[in-house]
Amino acid sequence: MKVLITGGAGFIGSHLAEHLLAQGDEVFIIDNLWTGRLSNLSGVQGDKRCHLVVETILNESVMNELVFKVDHIYHLAAAVGVRNIMDHPVETLDTNVKGTETVLRLANRFKKKVFIASTSEIYGKHVEHDLAEDNNRVMGSVKKRRWAYACSKTLDEFLALAYFDEKKLPVVIGRLFNTVGPRQTGQYGMVLPNFVQSALLGKPITVYGTGEQTRSFTDVKDVVGAITRLMAEPRAEGDVFNVGNDHEVSINELAARVKEMTGSPSEIEHIPYEKAYGPGFEDMERRCPNIGKVRDLIGFEPTRDLDAIIQGVIDYFKA
Ligand code: UDP
């Protein structure tokens, strides 16, 4: 099968490319290298079945040609990272809204099946454990820039479902919960690579806010396995699935675990959100998926627990 990955030089996209090549697919990647990196593709460089186009997904003629020649599309290209989103609001909205609109419109032109990578961020400021796909979304004020990202991804979901309902375009939506693993950089804010790098360098491990906020971390390989199986499952079409690990951990616990597993002398420091992200920043207190739906449909189970995930990231940065 021929597959297009938008954002294929990114952290998740590059793992997806390796997975698809290993299962015998021919892979086309489009990436503008905003946050993607050529080095992420070093493992597939030289593979004749892997083709890279360095270009934005907003380039219609390039996208038209790519979409025409493939069978499936994985749309991963998006603005990523809380820091990035806070620093680049226009690019965030442009990429996430116009980019997905372009992908869906062209996919519909040639009736190509699309996976849309969405995010747990769209649940917003929930304080509940166990977020299920049909839960309400709890959004903050439009003056709080963070929510622009959540709203743009929500619009992507609405648009994908509209194409499915109205145009019969086969789409599958996955809401990814804090995906982590080798090759993720801390440059755009992500907590685990930041903690591990600081710990290895003996620098302070900086926890934002009280550190009592929770997240649920999923290994990138589990995510890639889940989204490719969802794309292969006809009953997933026109539907939305949480993809994550339902083990919840506080950021304080994460910091302590990273310190212990690296044997680091680093101090764990608490920093107010305003200092990290500017005034008026709002965080989510909890974020843990209900994964009953994806489990029931494709038998998804996360295979790597938190310690295994942290160890993988430590090994990556040490190497
Ligand atoms: N965080 C932190 N220190 C860091 C980076 C992030 O304490 O160096 C916190 C952040 O405020 C959030 C959690 O860790 O509560 C997860 O942050 P990340 O940006 O990785 O993901 P998201 O907020 O999108 O879940």
Describe the structure.
The chain is α/β, with parallel strands linked by helices. The chain has a domain of 207 residues: Rossmann fold (3-Layer(aba) Sandwich), CATH 3.40.50. 41% of the residues lie in helices and 17% in strands. It has 11 helices and 13 strands. The mean pLDDT is 96. The structure holds uridine-5'-diphosphate. The site of uridine-5'-diphosphate has 14 residues, from helix 6 and strand 8. Uridine-5'-diphosphate binds next to helix 6 and strand 8.
How would you briefly describe this protein structure?
The chain has 319 residues and is an alpha/beta fold. The chain has helices at 11-22, 60-69, 82-87, 89-110, 146-167, 191-201, 220-231, 251-262, 273-277, 292-298, 306-318; strands spanning 2-6, 26-31, 50-54, 72-75, 113-119, 171-176, 179-180, 205-208, 214-215, 218-219, 239-243, 249-250, 268-271.
Helix and strand topology:
Layout: E1 2-6, H1 11-22, E2 26-31, E3 50-54, H2 60-69, E4 72-75, H3 82-87, H4 89-110, E5 113-119, H5 146-167, E6 171-176, E7 179-180, H6 191-201, E8 205-208, E9 214-215, E10 218-219, H7 220-231, E11 239-243, E12 249-250, H8 251-262, E13 268-271, H9 273-277, H10 292-298, H11 306-318
Parallel strand pairs: 1-2, 1-4, 2-3, 4-5, 5-6, 6-11, 7-10, 8-13
Antiparallel strand pairs: 9-12
The protein binds uridine-5'-diphosphate (UDP).
